[in-house]
Amino acid sequence: MARRGDRLLFAAAVLLLGVNSAAAEDAPVNTIQDLFQHLRACWKPPPSSKARPLDITVVVSFNRSGNILGHPRITYESAEASDNDRLQYRIAVMEALQRCTPMPFTDAMAGAAAGRPFAIQFRNRKTSPPTQERRA
Question: What CATH code is assigned to 4-122?
């Protein structure tokens, strides 16, 4: 039986695939820093009336033409988030990716980015709890 979190991710992925995209009208993406800035410009977190602020990370890859390759994966969500918070933020992440794709890669960036996974952090909490780093 699928876990509830898997069902939420599937629902967000379906939303991503079901919405028509329009390419963002920004400057060409020529560096990894440009890629992150481009994605941040597309990010619209859910209003506080729909979900409490949380941090979320998605891993996504692109093809040479700047379209999403495969399926984005949520790899981190704030621990204290409710199921509703997670769903609202997963939808917001998928909508941001939809708004931003295809990425307007330059030829050089298209070759460098194609197939490479990028971990994109969307932070919406005013302060993040301190993290304890563990070393092996």
Answer: 3.30.1150
